[in-house]
Predict the 3D structure of the following.
Amino acid sequence: MADASPILLELNQLTKSYGSGKVALDGFDIAVRKGEFVSVIGSSGAGKSTMLRCINHLIEPTSGTIVFDGKDTTKVRGRELRRMRRRISMVFQNYNLVYRATAIENVLQGRLGYKSAIAGALGLYTEDEKRRAFEMLDHVGLADFAYTRTDQLSGGQKQRVGIARALVQDPLLILADEPIASLDPKSSRTVLELLRGAADKFGITCLVSLHQVEFAQEFSDRIVGLADGRAVFDGAPDALTSSIVSEIYGGDSEEGEQ
Ligand code: ADP
């Protein structure tokens, strides 16, 4: 990733308070370049998920602005929101697959944002979309499982289907919310390699929340440390010292609650 790459995503003073009065995100700033792989680390309750969810409007920020691909998307709604979401894929800790459907059917769902509601409901995908979905399943090493129901797959395989679905969406940005939290170390590594590859090979910007500092250091261009809704570190992996790690994980967070 070149330093001269344009900025793809900018969050300015992003703040989110929940109805409970809890300030989950407290004036968070970040600018992420095209093709950059940024890990967001922090304890449970630090605000990682809140930040990721604000970006594609799964939740609405209380204040601050979001600029995505050169447009202020803070207040987008309706058709504009749908158009924006096409270019932002999500990868979830719990995979969010349809388990009674096959791997290829799940991957094709990554194309839903490009179709009318009727075409989507009827599963009317073009030959090109089907070919791309197979290519992406092959890319994540699951070509032989295309017609396997996803409830038959291991956790690591499920997450790879989730990544194939994210890639077939043709995104500019992948938001991955704790994508390896339910996986063993070997599957975790495979999943992070695939996300890193998305940045390196396809120029897709990746914003990935992680618990594991070592993985963040190994795979990221840049690490953001969140504590109590604020960025307490934003820099290169090798600038993350053990005292900063203690600061990130030592705050009054909710480790163990979730
Ligand atoms: P992380 O992803 O770092 O674990 P979250 O963004 O999930 O952190 O949570 C940040 C804070 O916001 C926590 O204190 C959490 O309890 C609170 N929170 C998250 N979601 C909600 C919600 N829907 N309603 C009220 N409080 C919430």
